[in-house]
């Protein structure tokens, strides 16, 4: 699915499809011609070296898929066509890491001379690392249910799950010990969309947020999202202060020791090792 080496591109240009998309009733009733351009980002090296179609994406099959999708679905906006079709392509064709999709509408109902109207989007899979924790009630159950909720989400693929470790609470609030772990996922969601999805999963587990760093049935945090450095009112990526949190680094070290922090420029293995060295008691000789 997601491939860091997906720098090769297969292009489809000028695929003509007669479909029924548009805001006006006559557009949906009569239909019109659309032109589709697609650039498929993937790793074509093995397919090229071994000359094997099974190692590539069958662009003929993809053209038929695009045509069927556009004819079987109806959208008011070109933006919706591009968004939903790009998602359908990425979910069906597992070797495609990202797609540039342009939907052109040469017969748009504009009462002026024009060449063409089009919408172009870039969509792709993103590799994300999450922290998971629980310290209320049946902790193993809450974590298992949380991971299962991620597994069945249509736009998330769970790739790795670490072993769970028992840790002391962080932040100075008196509470029970935690079970903590880490996950690697691939997703088509944006960071904010993913945060919203994680909050829904936490809420389904009865998570409350009255006390900062307080006890919780389920905690799901975004640690890294590709190599993104991002900050909004609700979300900071990479996760704040993770380099000083053993309960984050130890499970993450199990599944992604070589991942390099995009700000600190040190691997998870290096961060975990440095934190462990700081926590070791200093001994001297007499």
Quick one: biggest sheet?
5 strands, antiparallel
Instruction: Give the averaged pLDDT, no decimals.
Output: 91
Level of helix content?
A: 25-40%
Class by alpha and beta content: alpha+beta
Output the radius of gyration: 24 Å
Span between termini = 59 Å
Q: What is the 3D form?
A: elongated
Strand content: 25-35%
Low-confidence sequence ranges: 209-213, 282-286
How many E-type strands? 11
The H-and-E topology, N to C, reads as EHEHHHEEEHEEEHEEEHH
Lay out the secondary structure.
Blueprint: E1 8-19, H1 25-30, E2 32-42, H2 45-50, H3 59-72, H4 78-92, E3 98-105, E4 117-124, E5 126-134, H5 139-152, E6 156-161, E7 165-167, E8 178-187, H6 191-204, E9 219-225, E10 230-231, E11 236-237, H7 246-255, H8 268-279
Antiparallel strand pairs: 1-2, 2-3, 3-4, 5-8, 5-9, 6-8, 7-8, 10-11
Helix pairs in contact: 7-8
What would your notes on this structure say?
The protein is of the alpha+beta class and 286 residues long. It is 32% helix and 27% strand. The protein is built from eight helices and eleven strands. Helix 7 runs antiparallel to helix 8 (268-279).
Quick structural gist:
Helix content is 32%, strand content 27%. The protein is α+β, with helices and mostly antiparallel strands and 286 residues long.
